[in-house]
Prior knowledge:
Layout: H1 5-15, H2 21-47, H3 53-73, H4 77-84, H5 91-105, H6 111-118, H7 123-146
Helix pairs in contact: 2-3, 3-5, 5-6
Amino acid sequence: MEVTAQEYRKLSDQVAPRSPVLKNCIKAFLIGGLICAIGQVITSLVLDTGLGLKDARLIGSSVLIALSAVLTALNLYDDIAKHAGAGTLVPITGFANSIVAPAIEFKSEGLIMGLAAKMFTIAGPVLVYGITASIIYGLILNLVTMFK
């Protein structure tokens, strides 16, 4: 029995469950917003101690990174991501998760060959391309402003 592509698509549409796109978008928006709100609360609390805005933002970002790393190490970040989806990909927390997750996965191989070696498996290329792109963008911006 031969099935055409159109017949196969029709059969798979009947069997595959529908994805609740609107519900997933709302959850991602709310959880992502909550993560950002937590960062803002931390920054505001640090500002109240008398530190400057720049330092408060640095501390707020650092706390979000540390919190994300700890939640990943405790296998809680993945549970949150199951419900929040793309909402957990708020850049700073998602990046911390992407660094810690491979390291935790290989911790049984030892501190150096497991944890340390695998820490940048996923994040390494992101760092390389991110740093390279920022240098190129900086050079372009410098050239554009030089000739204005």
